[in-house]
């Protein structure tokens, strides 16, 4: 109910906290909220929907939070997640921390209990000092206590989320704030429109010269594109730069499609070779974290010395792991445009010996792979199943791929080519499980495109209940569950010989497709690549919520996929096993 509809008192010229929050968001172009209703924010969601915002209710806050963060990634506007106090807030916090880690702009708005009671620890309903708890897990955290500060508080949250390196912001709204009343005119005046929320950051000319110098003198240069480059939405500039430079590039997983994976300069299929052999590596919106072995060691051909150029909006990222010979601090569009300007007409492409060596390696690897992708093994192995899905995406390049799991993630990342920017969403910097359904909802809602989510059965389980959300909003999402009866594989045995199954094993031959049917969606089981391909093509053609239960050989996976080396080894259990 808006104040103007209230006839019980003379409220014609009054507004309140609820409506000011909505006005502040709408004024700044935020038109979608992902959340879970409850005390004290149920009416906030209702009023927002009444005011024309899209308000999508989830079954658990974590998934609403993942959706909000992916909305932020796809739109460059902060995605908003709305939760209740203490437990709902905590459920949303994983997604907020994940957004910050991944540099996705997001605002977690949580209702909170009475400040006076919380601070004296007198035992309020859902009592918790949420602001203090959120602070170390996000980029910025604010609490608004007075209705007249809502405008400025929301503005601060928006700017913090999207300016510089994007990240997660927490906004604490005590229950009493939402009901606070103020004069409507005064209220409108207090709303702040954020002008230029993410200002361009122009790199210093001498830093541009330095970067050009290092790149020009390279014999075996390599560009690594990260999801920061995809986020920046400077697709044409990135393409122009890569093509003008002639330098081979590697896309990080969510940067796949920034240029099509089939681009002649893609070195994706020669990854090990280029990381080892390159003498100059230019990072563009990618970090030298664990996903790139911290820029050192065997994977990088140590002890050979390499020179790094790094383009990033965050100055502190420079030298985080290794020396950066040419730091270029600024936004990706401005940095790459400045470099393009300096390259001139006589820019020499990299030596042919280098690009030939890469092409040769690529061809050998792709040929090796091609045979395996045709595998018709029954039950399906990863290559057979993903080989079929690779063709589906090739024929439907607008489809947005969501991908999580262990083996399901690792194999899909290298097998499935992506053709368009921001068309692959996955487990990101942390390698978390559970983003599947949240990311799928956000991708469908924000882009209107068909989504194909390829998820391991374990990964699917973290957010499986959200298929009801997908059905409720009738979203064009097709989920393929790679069902191998367990985590990593379904063949483990209980080492004690006891009755419980092994810790990594699920109910055998589960019918995830029946879950989807329970909510009115399409649910089908695929036992071979041809069936799988046809079922997914049908789902794309119909746009209906669909779940394909893809039966995968339970012995096909490996422990932790390709990162099994990160598991600590026990000396004791090895000794015991050999006794
Ligand atoms: P990946 O996992 O794909 O390697 P990361 O998340 O590690 O990508 O790195 C993304 C980087 O991009 C971060 O260091 C972030 O500061 C940077 N970044 C994000 N947006 C921009 C932008 N608009 N311009 C420049 N750098 C950006
Ligand atoms: Mg599994």
Please characterize this protein's 3D structure.
There is one protein chain. By secondary structure, this protein is α/β, with parallel strands linked by helices. The protein has three domains: 14-190, Thiamin diphosphate (ThDP)-binding fold, Pyr/PP domains (Rossmann fold); 205-359, Rossmann fold, CATH 3.40.50.1220; 374-565, 3-Layer(aba) Sandwich (Rossmann fold). α1 (17-27) packs across α2 (42-50), α3 crosses α18 (436-447) and α10 packs across α14. It is globular. 51% of the residues are buried. The model has no long low-confidence stretch (mean pLDDT 95). The structure holds adenosine-5'-diphosphate and magnesium ion.
Structural class: alpha/beta
Query: What is the annotated CATH architecture of the largest domain?
Result: 3-Layer(aba) Sandwich
| Whole-number tally of structural domains | 3
Task: State Rg.
Answer: 25 Å
What's the total number of strands? 19
Largest sheet: 6 strands, parallel
Distance between the termini: 73 Å
Percent helix, as a range, is 40-55%
Question: Quaternary status of these chains?
Answer: single chain
Which fold name is given in CATH as the topology of the largest domain?
Rossmann fold
Ligand roster: adenosine-5'-diphosphate, magnesium ion
CATH superfamily of the largest domain: Thiamin diphosphate (ThDP)-binding fold, Pyr/PP domains
Shape: globular
Please count the helical segments.
Answer: 23
Average the pLDDT over all residues and give the rounded result.
Answer: 95
């Amino acid at each position: 109910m808006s104040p103007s509809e209230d006839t019980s008192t003379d409220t014609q010229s009054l507004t309140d906290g609820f409506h000011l929050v909505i006005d502040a968001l709408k004024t700044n172009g935020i038109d979608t909220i992902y959340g879970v209703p409850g005390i004290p924010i149920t009416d906030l969601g209702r009023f927002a929907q009444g005011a024309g915002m899209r308000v999508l209710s989830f079954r658990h806050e974590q998934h609403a939070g993942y959706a909000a963060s992916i909305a932020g990634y796809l739109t460059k506007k902060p995605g908003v997640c709305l939760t209740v106090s203490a437990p709902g807030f905590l459920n949303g916090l994983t997604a907020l921390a994940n957004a910050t880690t991944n540099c996705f702009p997001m605002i977690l708005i949580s209702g909170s209990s009475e400040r006076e009671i919380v601070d004296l620890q007198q035992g309020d309903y859902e009592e918790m000092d949420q602001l203090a708890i959120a602070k170390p897990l996000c980029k910025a955290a604010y609490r608004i206590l007075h209705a007249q500060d809502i405008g400025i508080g929301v503005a601060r949250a928006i700017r913090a989320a999207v300016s510089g390196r994007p990240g997660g912001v927490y906004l604490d709204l005590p229950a009493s704030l939402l009901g606070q009343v103020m004069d409507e005119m005064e209220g409108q005046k207090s709303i702040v429109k954020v002008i230029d929320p993410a200002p361009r950051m122009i790199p210093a000319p001498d830093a541009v010269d330095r970067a050009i110098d290092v790149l020009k003198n390279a014999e075996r240069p390599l560009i690594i594109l990260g999801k920061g480059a995809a986020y920046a939405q400077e697709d044409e500039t990135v393409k122009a730069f890569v093509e003008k430079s002639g330098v081979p590039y590697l896309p990080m997983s969510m940067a796949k499609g920034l240029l099509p994976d089939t681009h002649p300069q893609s070195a994706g299929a020669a990854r090990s070779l280029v990381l080892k052999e390159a003498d100059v590596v230019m990072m563009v919106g990618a970090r030298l974290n664990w996903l790139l072995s911290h820029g050192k060691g065997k994977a990088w051909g140590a002890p050979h010395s390499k020179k790094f150029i790094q383009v990033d909006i965050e100055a502190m990222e420079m030298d985080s792991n290794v020396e950066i010979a040419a730091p270029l601090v600024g936004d990706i569009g401005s940095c790459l445009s400045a470099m393009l300007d300096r390259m001139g007409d006589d820019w020499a492409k990299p030596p042919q010996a280098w690009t030939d060596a890469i092409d040769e390696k690529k061809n050998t690897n792709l040929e090796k792979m091609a045979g395996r992708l045709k595998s018709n093994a029954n039950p399906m192995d990863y290559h057979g199943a993903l080989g079929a899905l690779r063709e589906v995406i090739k024929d439907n390049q607008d489809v947005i791929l969501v991908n999580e799991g262990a083996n399901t993630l690792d194999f899909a990342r290298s097998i499935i080519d992506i053709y368009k920017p921001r068309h692959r969403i996955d487990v990101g910097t942390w390698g978390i499980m559970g983003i599947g359904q949240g990311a799928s909802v956000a991708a469908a809602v924000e882009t209107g495109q068909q989504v194909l989510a390829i998820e391991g059965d374990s990964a699917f389980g973290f957010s499986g209940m959200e298929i009801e959300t997908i059905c409720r909003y009738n979203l064009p999402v097709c989920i393929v569950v790679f069902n191998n009866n367990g985590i990593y594989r379904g063949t483990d045995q209980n080492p004690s010989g006891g009755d419980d199954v092994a810790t990594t094993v699920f109910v055998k031959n589960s019918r995830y497709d029946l879950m989807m049917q329970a909510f009115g969606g399409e649910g089908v089981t695929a036992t071979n690549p041809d069936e799988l391909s046809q079922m997914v093509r049908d789902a794309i053609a119909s746009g209906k919520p669909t779940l394909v239960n893809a039966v995968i050989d339970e012995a096909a996976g490996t422990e932790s996929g390709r990162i099994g080396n990160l598991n600590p080894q026990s000396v004791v259990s090895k000794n015991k096993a050999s006794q």
